[in-house]
Design a protein that fits this description.
Two copies of one chain form a homodimer. By secondary structure, chain A is mostly helical. In chain A, about 75% of the residues lie in helices and about 0% in strands. Chain A has eleven helices and no strands. The radius of gyration of chain A is 20 Å and the shape is globular. The relative contact order of chain A is 0.15. At the A-B interface, helix 5 and helix 11 of A face helix 5 and helix 11 of B.
Chain lengths: ~325, ~325
């Protein structure tokens, strides 16, 4: 990618390319915005509930009149856009795990602003997420320079990645048409697996589209290629399916159960897809790859810990 | 150290010297033996209690007649010796954190052999300890080759390390003579801080002594130097002080509180001492050092998690 200076040592030294740095900064900003948006929206909901006496949870819509709720909504959109752009600059192996930091931001802000006390083990979870993220960033792979959407197309149509896509589609079909009707309402893994599998394809197509748009803004118009429009179609399909089943999962099961399972499966599958499609690990030393995987395991463990212990504290308190 | 081949990449590649490999294997064996010894001893205690009808906790000594208890005791001694020898081969930055694995071994064995169910978060703690240990091993520094106890003496008498030793002694004196009588029985940090501070000096002197003995066994007699005997004296003094205050801490407070605090302080101070004395981090890239520190933080967090959640499960069960 353009101007990505700084040769990468075979063992994944600390030298990050300028594109990776941009991607990291965008991913961190995104986590900050998304994390903060939850708190701002909640503060808005509370204020609206006080003003009208009716809570959103029991059917009130007064929050739509509350400016603070809209500020939260806009903050969230800004965060999602930053996340989208981050994928255009840095590998998914780097951007996806950093998403865990939004959970920390919202947990810490909730502690100080909403007075939702953080459990001591939750603090440990935060520390782990940060330590794991640092290890991931240090061992981040460099991306190959991409100059046209056609190159991404070639990556997406290589046999290994087509095999991955085919497997995902088959598994999703089986889950949607066979397992969902039977166990969808009783087993939390069905809906979350569908979301996560589609999510890994979403991120890949978002990355393809993001890179095309980035190249277009840089002056080499990619909108003339049908591949760009095809990726746009894939993004829409995958994101809509993913959102649909995420909502089903959240409607059926407790958020505290769905969130960590979804996060772990989604992140793992996305990284698998990215490693297959973008060959993120080629040219990296075994030490770097293993360190990166350990960093990922730590972030995933930290996220689980934070979610599980969040629930510990909520039970005795009133939920609002 | 002798025959430590394999040049280390500036960024801490996966190539480990043969001495580091020996040190790692010894440290892992040590953790296995020490972890297993707890279980064997406990099994012996139970058997003795069944045979005599009196428990060790209420004053019985029948366990001394139980062969299984002695097998456990010998296993522990073998483990401690392996740990001692490991320090002669690999840096403390590498050996000390791997000690956490003994906690995993005993937790896992307790789960299967003693039927002490491991809490789900305890499993997460185990996973973290392993992931953190892998990161530490990958980024382990290479040791300088030491050919005589005089070299270690020079390291121990460099101004920076003398300053560390002086600070430790002053702080330990203040804690022992001023804070212990006042707060020793109420604040868990007093005794554990004394243990940990002395412990960091114990490990440094153990390492000095171990290296001297290793060189002696390899044919270059170090017992002719007074420095070797001086280190022996320091080992005895430090280890005895450390053990004395560890027993006081365990007598006064709950093991589940003392163990993680002690482990975190002891490991951190030992690594600090080792970094000052042996300059473990010189020649390492910032990325490697930061990765190593993150690995350490993860191991420490995992240990805390394992200890804290162990207590969660014990409360409803009978303690034996």
């Amino acid at each position: 990618m353009g101007g990505g200076g700084g040769g990468e040592g075979a063992s994944g030294g600390p030298e990050l390319s300028t594109d990776n740095v941009k991607g990291i900064v965008l991913a961190l900003l995104s986590s900050g915005f998304i994390g903060a948006s939850f708190i701002i929206k909640k503060k808005g909901l509370r204020r609206a509930a006080v003003a009208s006496g009716v809570r959103a949870g029991v059917g009130g819509y007064s929050y739509l009149m509350e400016p603070l709720w809209w500020v939260g909504m806009i903050t969230m959109i800004v965060g999602e856009v930053a996340n989208f752009v981050a994928y255009a600059f840095a590998p998914a192996v780097l951007v996806t795990p950093l998403g865990a930091l939004s959970i920390i931001v919202s947990a810490v802000l909730a502690h100080f602003i909403l007075n939702e006390r953080l459990h001591a083990l939750g603090v440990l979870g935060c520390v782990m997420c940060i330590a794991g993220s640092v290890v991931i960033v240090i061992h981040a792979p460099q991306e190959q320079e991409i100059t046209s959407v056609r190159e991404i197309w070639n990556m997406a149509t290589q046999p290994a990645f087509l095999l991955y896509v085919a497997s995902v589609i088959v598994v999703v079909f089986v889950l949607v048409f066979y397992f969902s009707p039977l166990y969808g309402q009783s087993n939390v893994l069905i809906y979350t697996a569908i979301c996560s599998l589609m999510g890994s394809l979403s991120v890949m197509s978002v990355k393809a589209l993001g890179t095309s748009l980035k190249l277009t803004f840089e002056g080499t118009n990619q909108l003339i290629y049908p591949e760009t429009w095809f990726f746009m179609l894939v993004v829409a399909t995958c994101v809509l399916t993913q959102m649909n089943y995420l909502n089903k999962a959240l409607d059926t099961f407790n958020t505290a159960i769905v969130s960590p399972i979804y996060y772990v499966m989604f992140t793992t599958l996305t990284i698998l897809a990215s490693v297959i499609m973008f060959k993120d690990w080629s040219g990296q030393s075994p030490g770097s790859i293993i360190s990166g995987i350990c960093g990922l395991i730590v972030v995933l463990s930290g996220t689980i810990l934070l979610h599980v212990t969040k629930d510990y504290e909520r039970i005795p308190q009133s939920r609002n």
